[in-house]
Structures are given as C-alpha cells and as structure tokens.
Specification:
Rieske_2Fe-2S (chains A, B, C); iron-sulfur (chains A, B, C); six-stranded antiparallel β-sheet; homotrimer; dioxygenase (chains A, B, C); Aromatic ring-hydroxylating dioxygenase subunit alpha (chains A, B, C); about 350 residues; 2 iron, 2 sulfur cluster binding (chains A, B, C); Naphthalene 1,2-dioxygenase Alpha Subunit, Chain A, domain 1
Chain lengths: ~350, ~350, ~350
C-alpha cells in the first residue's frame, strides 16, 4: 500500500525569517511524519536534520548552536551541518552510527523548502514558483496557522474555489456565483493549473463599503496547484466589461496575489503558510491591511469547516461520500498525488 | 454481541427552548454514537437529521437555514427537512445518494425527543411521561450538565437512592436513613417504578435553617425510571406522622418534582438534562431558588463520584465488583435494558 | 516477558507531611500502575490500600475518614485500616469479597514508602537510606514535580551526571568538566554507588557571584542509586587543592545534600520527590534558598529534555540508539533493575 506522504517532494518549512541567525535559533518542525531541526550557519546557509540525537533520542532543537554545528545538550555530542558527529565528550573515537540524517533544504521566493526523500535525488526544479514577499513590485503580508485535518482534505479545499460562495460568504464571498463556475483544469506532472473569469458580481463582502452598491466586477482567476499542497493564486479584479466569455477586459481595479503552502505534520494536522496582498501598481492606502485581516478571518472559516469535516470522517469511518461536479479539480489533484505515491511505493517495492 | 445503545428508543435531545426559531439556530448533538443536527422550520416544526453532508462529510450544523431547508456551507448543497437533496449548485440533476438520513423527532413535556431507530417504527406512546416546566401548577427550573461516564453507571446511580445519604450528604442528605431503605421495585417492559416512605428524618442539610432543629419529616418517594435513562421523581415532604408503615399521612410541607433525562453521547460521556421545583400549591418564597442551587451542587457531587468511578473502571478493566442489597434497583433496570438490547440484536441477526 | 514495574520494592509515596491527620486527609496516589489511597489513623499510623471500592469501583479517596476507618461515600461501605469491610448499610452480613487490598506502608527519613508486592514479604531493610529533612544537623528544603516520561529514562538521567555540563549548564554547570568524568560504579544487589572528585572547576553558574572569578573548586561527589529510582547525593565543595587524584583535601566551603525519589505513575509519567540543602555546619545566610531555587530550575531543565526525549522515542519507535562511554552508570543500574524484574517474572512463572 502507498505511504501517506510523498518522500520525493519539497515541503514548505516556513518563511525565510522563521529561521534566524542567532545563537538560540534552533527551529523544530514536524513534516510528513518526521521531526526536523532547522538552523542557519553563521554565513546564513540553511541546515535541516533529524531532530533526534542518535544517542538517546533527545531533541537537537533543545541543543546549542556552536559555529556551524549543533551540540546536543543532553550529553554534549556535537554534530556538523552534514549530520556527522564531530565529538563525544569523554571519548577519543566517534562510535559508529553516531550520525544524524540530513535533508536537502533551500530557500526560494521567501519560503524555506525541505526535500523529504534522499538528498541526492533532490531536484530544485521541482520547487513550485510563488509570489515572493520580497518582490519589489508587490506588497504582501505573511503569516501561518495550524489546521487539524488531513492534508488531502486541504488539497480538495484549494482545488475547488466554489467554496468561496459558502465557506467565505461573509469575507471574500457575498455572491453565489463562485458556486456555479465549472472551470477547466489543465494537468501537469505535479499538479494542475486553472484559469477563468467570474463575471458581473458585486463587490466581495469585505470591500462593499469601498464601492457603489450597484458596482459590478469581473474577477480574472489564475490558480496553480502542485504537490504536496502548494496553491499560488492571482485574483485580478476588473470593472465588469459586460461580456460573457473571454478574458476580463474592464479596467483593472486591484491585482491581488497569494501564495499558500500546506505542510502536513502528520495524518491529522498541518501547518499552513500564507501571504496575501496586491501589486504596488494597483495598491491604494489601507487595502493590503484590509485584505490581510479578511484573509486571516477566511482561513479561520476554512479551519472551522475542515476540522468539523475531519471530526465527522473520524466518527463515521468508511461512510460513503458522493461526488459532485465541483470535485473535478480535487479529483485531478488527488489523482496526481496518488500516482506519485504509487510510483514511490512501486520504486520502493522494486528496490 | 449486543450493541452499546438501543436504537428503538426515544432519547432526550434537550429542552424545548434549546432549539430556537432563528436563522442561526442549527443545533449539533451527539446521541448514542451518532451526530445529529436539530432545527426548526419557520412554523416551529422540529427537524432531526444526520449532521453530516453526504458529499464530503462537512457538519450541516455549520450550515445555513433557508426556509425549512438547510444548506451545507461547504459546497452549497441544499437539503429539505425530509433529508432529500433539493439542489447542488452548478448541477442540473441531483446525484444519487445525495440524501441525509433523518430521525423521528418530537416534543413532549418540554423536552425534545429523538427516536434513534427506523423513523417508520417510531412509537410516540413509548416516550416517558415527565413533569413539564410549562405546567401551570408547577414551578420548575431547568438546566443540563455533561458527565464523562458510561450511561449504565448513571442508570445504576439513579435506580438506587441510597446514595443520597453518602454522595449527597452535604446537600439533600444529612441523615444515613436513605442508606438503609430497601425499596420494592415493580418492573414494566421499559423500566421500573418504586414507591416508599423515608420516615422520621431531620430536615435535609440544605433546608436545616428553615425548621426547628428537632423537626422530623417523612418523605414520600415516587420514582419512575425508563430506558434509556429517564428518571421522573416526586418527593413529597410531610410532617412526620410517627407511624412506621403505610403512606405518609402528616401535613404536606413541600411537594417537589424533578424530571431527569440522561442521553449518552458515546460510551464515555453523556448529557444530563434536568428540572427541579415544587408544586405552586406548596411553593413559598425562595424555595425553588434554594432547591435549584442545591440540586446543581448535588449533580456536581454525582459527577465527581461517577467520573472517579469511571476512571477506576478503566484503570482496572475486568476487576471483579461485588453486589450488595442496594443493587436490586440497578440490576432490574439494567436487566430491562439488556433484554431490549438483546431483542434488537436478535432482530438484527434474524433480518 | 517481565513486567514494567517491580512489585517487591519500596516506592516513595511522598513527604511525611503530604498525608495529614485531618478528617479530610485522604490522599490519592498512582504508583507503578496502581491507584492507592493513603491516610493516617488518629494515632498517626499510616494506611495504604487500593483506592477502589470493591462494590462499584468508586475511589475511596473521595470517601470519609471515620476514626481509623474509611467510608466509601458512594453507597456507604465502611473499611478498616486492614482493608476488611466492617459494615454495609442495610445489610446484616458482609458479602464475601468485600475487602480492599492493602499495602505495607511506613515512614523513613521524612518520606512515606509503600511496598507494592505482597505485604507479608515487605522487608524494611530494603528501604534506601536518605538525608532526612528533619535531621537537626541539616537544612533541607523539599518539593515535588511531575515529569511525563518513563522512569527508565529518569534512571539513566540520574546514573550519569555528565549531563550536568549540558542540561544544567545555566544552573549547576558552567563548565564542561562533568562531561569528561568517567566514574567507576560499584554495584550492589539493588543499585550502584559512585564516588569521585570533579577537580579544579570554576564556581557553578548559580554561585558565580559569591566568589572571585578565578576561584577554583574541587567537588567531592558521592552518589547512591537504588531501585526503583532513588538518588541520594552528597556534593562537598572544597577549595581546589591542586592535586590530580585522591580525595579532595582543600578547605570545605559547602557540604550539600539531596535526596531524590522517583515514583513511576505509569509507563508515561512519574512523580519526583526531592530535597536539597546543606549541613548546618557549612550553611551561610541565603545559601539554602539559593540552592533550592536553582535546584527547582534544574529540575525544569531535566523535565524539558526528558519529555522531549520521550516524545521522540514515541515518534520513532524501535529506532536504534547508540551507546557512549557515559552509559556505563545507566547500563549498570538498568541491569540491576532488569535482573530483579526477571527474577520476579520467573518467580511468578514458577509459582
């Protein structure tokens, strides 16, 4: 049977600034069922290793940085950034097996990424493209929350934006139009990409006070989703052009960008790293604050429905679930995930 | 093996006013291992259905009332009060299987009752009689608490009032006389009924300040217990008549009434709905307040001993427990329960 | 397979004053997977019995002391200090089996000790010697904390003081010298004993302000460890004598004493009872307060590393752990424990 998590994939381990340069900056993360220590060397290079001393399993994240190395503060064993044990106090030789497994780790677009498979096979071209909070043409705010559900439910949530009409009715919604869109998804080896326009809708609830009551808008949507669960979205809000098909052609009122990376801790819990904001070109005073606050509220709306769903699924194990038209995106995305999981499983079996 | 819970029984789902008429009044309940949504139509009719959308298991109680229907606020599916799916946004046809199981539900004596078996077999004559808080001849206060124990222990608690002398020594007790009563129980198909007099006892602790220290009382007790765990009690407090047998014949000082319905959530937890008060005829200023406060304290006394008991039973699984004379009531009540459970189990096996 | 806990051993159940003489002093303890009630008779004698009524498993610790007996406050059964049921309200005869198992219990050196095996085989000579907080030649402070780990990890912690250099770097440490000591342990039937000198070290962190920066000290260490997990320690702090071997011969600056008893509640949690202080002869104003505060902080340091370790061990079940030179003490101590466990297991099998 396939494992719950892909090994050969990059998982987001947080925002660039989550791991600092200070002596105390030893960051513990739980990713895809494994416990990791993250830290930076004096030069700023990232190190990721198993957060477990090979001697008696003490967390290295409770240890002490010493130059580019980390010392376990239970019995003083010292490990280099390659995981190799450099010293055991009181011993002349390093005992065999005293090394800590390491992970390939790097930064891209403001995020820290960890490859959970064999570091030798880590392929940086597989890291998803995202909107960088440090991009000078954008103004983005960042944060993270924890949601107690399985990441497959989060994939399904993100691959079907019809839920904006319902889950986010009081924040980003305010119209049922999202619930009637049937977008076409184009599939690629590690995800799906989707483009469409939601036409002639009133301002979303959070922005109603900014526009006349009868103002109508077209929203040009561009979504890129990739495994394990990265969601890169551009909403471009246009004045409604009165057309019924084709790209939105009305005046661009606001061009908004969000990057969202979902990292499973284990089968019941995940970390959600997100940014939201606008292009500098279309930004106006207060709009990024407003969007950030709205977005945070919207994530709490997702958290509530996802955790409720998880609870029912645990209460009714094996209960049948029917499919509807909006499951096309989730189904394609989970198909990609399951295909990759099966390939890893087969490769493992063959090896 | 028999199931833990009766299906063919009415379970109390709360007080009449727990489920309001407002747009937001979607009430979630856990009853006998199932998750239920309760709401009222605009006309006030009660609806009870599984609190799980058949699409992706989101709780319908996180949804939205629309007229007599409820909309799942994950993907917008709309369900009528009969559980039938009326609409899936973006689809012309309702997919097969898109219905939500419903439960027979009704009101009686101020309580809401749900039949957990096949609604077609729901028999309203099986709902226990209780004292209605809206009865104009009574003044009753109501509330509920949660107790983390198995409901069989709660049955045993209620079917043997000798515990008043010990568990409730500081509230309703104040004499060990309850501990020596050996009442006769008469059995009926769904429970037991018990009548006796506790004679020549001092005022209960909570009411000592109302009477001379040497005042003595007879308490005429009438208990009706029915499955799953409904406890309907009348305590009539008389001036002691000096007799040693027969009904109490002294002057009636206070005629008190309580209805208590215990609804298991699951095997480890239950909801306890209760009222307490007096007849208007014997009520005097302050007495119902005093009784209500005392009663709430007494339920916390029960909660403490029952949860302690549950903890020990989980720590010592299978440890022998001896029987004493006061187990006659509990044994008869559990015998009735087990007989009905076995019948359902047999009926299930035969079918 | 051997059990997790020794039966034929004395476990510390707390400090002498934890169990008072008052009517309400019914103390519940969880020891080695069993639930105990502790109380004192009017004469001050200690009683230890299973904290479970044989009738319906209610905790006797929620009961009431009556003279030298305890009454279960669920249905009023009364038990003498020998566990024998004396009375069941409403019954003339005591039903068979209505007795509560008791434990051998006594006091020694300020601690209460319980023998978890057959009381008839309780051998008081097996209680470890400790420093008594009531000893007129000592000034000791006492307290207790809870640590959520398996007691075997606590044994390993206490049998290897090299961790002082790392875990306690900011309290008792301040030098890596502890991490290089390779002491010889002498084994006895129920534990190990260890003596050595840590030479020519600066003042420990907590006491640096009391001495010139270049002051150097020798610490004469004497540890006695016994099953299940009792740790009796004397640190004698001398002016450094400049020697490299033999006992410390410099002037004694402070002679400190600590007794620590670790009692497993179950496989995941333990209670830790400890004292710390000095001889009256070497005490100076404020030093015992300072040591006590430091010691409490140090126990929180241990708690943090031990609970982190436990978490990793549960996350990575069966993951290999390598051995280092400092495991000699832990290995000997766990060897003694496992030998005794195997003997009990074999005796049980033979019987």
């Amino acid at each position: 049977m396939a494992e719950a998590f892909l090994k050969n994939a990059w998982y987001c381990a947080g925002w660039r600034d989550d791991v600092g340069l200070g002596q105390k900056d030893l960051v513990a993360r739980r990713i895809a069922g494994e416990s990791l220590l993250l830290y930076r060397t004096a030069e700023g290079g990232l190190v990721a290793m198993e957060d477990r001393c090979p001697h008696r399993s003490a967390p290295l994240s409770l240890g002490r940085k010493e130059g580019d190395a980390v010392r376990c503060m239970y019995h003083g064993m010292l490990f280099g950034p390659d995981g190799a044990c450099r010293h055991v106090p009181g011993m002349d030789k390093i005992p065999p097996g005293a090394d800590v497994p390491t992970y390939a780790v790097c930064e891209k677009d403001g995020w820290i990424w960890v490859w959970m498979g064999d570091p030798a096979s880590a392929d940086r071209t597989l890291i998803c493209d995202a909107y960088d909070p440090h991009d000078p043409t954008l103004t983005l705010r960042t944060n993270s929350i924890r949601i107690d559900t399985n990441y497959r439910q989060e994939i399904a949530n993100l691959a079907d934006l019809s839920h904006i009409s319902w889950v986010h009715d009081e924040t980003f919604g305010g119209t049922d139009r999202w619930g009637y869109i049937r977008p076409r998804h184009s599939r690629n080896p590690r995800g799906i990409e989707t483009k469409y326009v939601v036409r002639n809708i009133p301002a979303p609830r959070f922005a109603k006070h900014l526009f006349p009551a009868d103002a109508r808008f077209d929203i040009q949507v561009h979504v890129r989703l990739s495994v394990p669960c990265n969601f890169i979205l551009n909403f471009r809000i246009h004045q409604a052009d009165g057309e019924t098909s084709g790209d939105a052609r009305g005046k661009v009122l606001l061009d908004t960008y969000t990057s969202q990376a979902v990292t499973p801790r284990d089968e019941n819990s995940l970390d959600y790293y997100f940014s939201w904001g606008t292009s500098k070109e279309t930004e106006f005073p207060g709009v990024v604050d407003l969007m950030y606050r709205t977005n945070y509220e919207a994530f709490l709306e997702d958290k509530r429905i996802l955790e409720g769903q998880r609870q029912r699924q645990l209460e009714y194990p094996g209960a049948p679930e029917i499919d509807i038209v909006h499951d096309a995106g989730p189904a394609q995305m989970l198909w990609v995930l399951d295909k990759l999981l099966a390939e890893e499983s087969g490769a493992g079996a063959a090896a």
